[in-house]
Amino acid sequence: MHKREPHSGPARTALRTGALAAAALMGAAGLAAPASADAPGPVVEDGRTQPVFDYADAVYQEVDIVTGADSDGDGEPDTVRMRIMRPEETEDGLQVPTILEPSPYWAGTHDAQMYDVDLDDDSAGTVPRGRPRAGSAEEMAQASAEGPRGASAQAGPTGDGSATMPNYYDNYFLPRGYAVAQLDSLGTGGSTGCPTSGGENETQGVTAAVDWLNGRTTGFDAETGEEVSAEDWSTGNVAMTGISYNGTLPVAAASTGVEGLRTIVPQGAISSWYDYYRDNGGVVAPGGYQGEDADVLAKLVYTRADADVCDPVIDGVTEGQDRDSGDYNDWWDERNYRNDAEDGAFGASVFLAHGLNDWNVKTDQAMLLWQALEDQGVERKMWLHQAGHVNPFNLRMDEWLDQLHRWFDHELYGVDNGIMDEPRVDVQGSDTEWAAQDDWPGEGTAPVRLGLRPGGEDGDGGLEPGKHRGKPRWEEFTDEGRGTPAEELVAEPGTGKDGALVYRTGELTEDVRMSGVPEVTVRAAMDGSSPYLTALLVDYGTDTRPTEDVRYDTDDRVCYGEGVPEDPGCTYPSYNVTEESDFKIVTRGWIDARNRGSDEEQRPVVTDKPYRYTWPMQAQDYVFKKGHRIGVVLVSTDHDYTLRYPAGTEVEVDTKRTSITLPVSEGGGGLG
C-alpha cells in the first residue's frame, strides 16, 4: 500500500467541508456518515457529490483476491489482481463505494494467428494478429477511451510516489468520494487462472472482486503477501464499467446477481459471445477482424506468468467454439448472459452505451439485452451514438459526465437527484444532433412489410408495402465469393451485377425512421459451395453521413478532473467524422442455409430445392430521408464478415415469397 506525497495540484472546484457540515449534508442526501468523526465525508450539492478529496494524496494498493475457480487446474484457487486508488481519508475511517473496470488488456496483448477465411484455396495462409484490437490496452488508453492523452494503460505508482490510472474515472470520481479500481481478468497480467473468452471462470474472477469488497472472500497484499481486508474503507457498493471486453465482464458479473454490485455501465459490450463470432448458424467475424474467433482472442490476452500452463484450456476453447459447424451449443450457451437477464437474475441496474456504426461489437448486443432487461423490470438507461466502437465520453463530455455522475451517486450513495425520472434513452441522429426519448424503440413503432417487385437482376427491382401473391417469379444471382466486397455489389444498383439482386422503393415522400430489428424472409434455391445468404439494407441517396470514426480536436484541451503531472485529468473532445456518399449500408444480416430451422443443428440443403429462410438483421435506429430510396440487396458471401468460399454458388430467389419487415417508428406513409 502506498500513500502519495503532498502535492500542490490544480485548484479544486470546491473546498473541503468540515466534518460536522459534511455529516449534515450526508444525512440530507441519504449518505452514510464516516466511521470516524475526524474523517470528512462526501458532500452533496444540487444532487451531486462534490470534489472535496485530494486526488494527489490518494492511497494506492494492489490486492490478489481469491476466486471460486481453478481454471488452470493447479489445485489452488485462481486469484485476480486488483489495483485500487481511494481517498486518503479512507485510512481514517471514511467508507466509500468502488467504481471498478475489469479487463484482460491491462498488461497488453500478444500476437495471435487469425483463421484462414478463404476456404479451398491452397495458397491462403493465416493472417498475423499483431496490431492492437479495439478495446485493447493501447486503444483503451488512447482513442477508444479518452483520445490522444497518452496515459499509461495500467495503474501504478509513478516516480514521485504518486499513482495514476488510465481513463477518466479516477480523476473525476475519486475527489468526489469514490474508490476507483482496475482488475486483471483471469489469465492476464498479475492474475492466475486461464482466459476462456467469456467462460464461467472469468465471471467468477470478476465477482470475486465484489465479494472481497464486501468481506466475503480473502485478499492478499500483492507485494507482501499479507492478508488484507476492505472492511475499514469499503461500503460494499460497487459499480462496474468499461468498453468492449472491459464492458463485457461487468455484464457477465451482473448476470450472476452478485450481492453488492449495484450498477454496471457497459459501452460497446458483448451480451452473447455466440452473436459476436456467429450468426444464425454461420461463422461471422467481428467487423475489422476477419478470421478471429474465441480461441484467437484467448491467446491474444494470455499475458499471465507461467506462459504454457493454460495451453490445454485454450485447446478446450478451440474445441468448444466448434468453428467447423458454427452451431450454437452448450459451450456458447454458457457465454450467453441474456439468458440470465431473461430469467430475472440481474440484480444490478444497467446504463448501456453503444455505437450505431459499431460493426465490431454489433448493435444487437446492446439492443437485445435492453429488451430482455425491460421484460424483467430492471432499472436501465441507454445512449445510442453515431460513432463505432468508442466510448461516448469524448463525444459529449459534459452531458456524459453529468449523467454518469448522477447515476453513480444515485446507485452507490443513494442520492435522490432525479436521474431516474428523466427520459431513459439518448439517441444521436444521423445529423449528429441528440434527442431524448422515454424508451427504445420509440412509442408507436410498428412492423411494415415490404415485398419485392421483379427486376432485381437488372438492379431495377421494386420494394413495395404489402404481400405479393401469385405464381413464383424467380430471379437469380451468382455468388462472387471472395472477389467483391459488399460495398461494390450495392454501389451501382441501376446497372445490375451478377453477384447480387437489388430491390428499391421509389423516392420517399417523407422522412422514414426505422427503430428496431428488421427481419428478412427469402424463398430460395441454392447450388454451390457457399451456404451463406446475406441481406443488406441500404439507404440510396447522396448525402453527408456519420461514419464509425471520430476525430479529436487536439487544439481544445479540456480538464475535467484533478490530477498529477503524469496524469493531469485532461483530454480532448471528439467529433463524428462524416463523409458524402451516394449510399450507405445501414444494417445487414446473415444465415447459414443449413441452419434454417435452428442455430443448434444443421440440415442438408438439397441442390436446386427451394426453402424458406427467415432471419433478423442487426438492430438499428436510422432515418431514411425524404427523396432517398430504401434498398434490399441479396448476396451470398459477405466479404468482410462471412467465410469466403470459391465463387460460383448460384442462388435463385422467388420474389413473390420474399420480403423484408421494417420496424418503422416515424414516417411510414413515406413508403408509398
TrEMBL record:
What protein am I looking at?
Answer: Xaa-Pro dipeptidyl-peptidase
Give the EC class as a word. Answer: hydrolase
Provenance organism: Nocardiopsis endophytica
- Signal peptide range equals 1-37
Disordered, as annotated region: 120-161, 453-482
NCBIfam families per the UniProt record, alphabetical:
CocE_NonD (TIGR00976), PRK05371.1-1 (NF003780)
SUPFAM superfamilies named in the record: alpha/beta-Hydrolases, Galactose-binding domain-like
Q: Name one Pfam family in it.
A: PepX_C
Residue stretches of biased makeup (Basic and acidic residues): 472-482
Q: Which residues form the Xaa-Pro dipeptidyl-peptidase C-terminal domain?
A: 405-663
Q: Which UniProt keywords are present, listed alphabetically?
A: Aminopeptidase, Hydrolase, Protease, Serine protease, Signal
**Enzyme Commission identifier(s):** 3.4.14.11
* InterPro entries in the record: AB_hydrolase_fold, CocE/Ser_esterase, Galactose-bd-like_sf, Pept_S15_Xpro, TAT_signal, Xaa-Pro-like_dom, Xaa-Pro_dipept_C
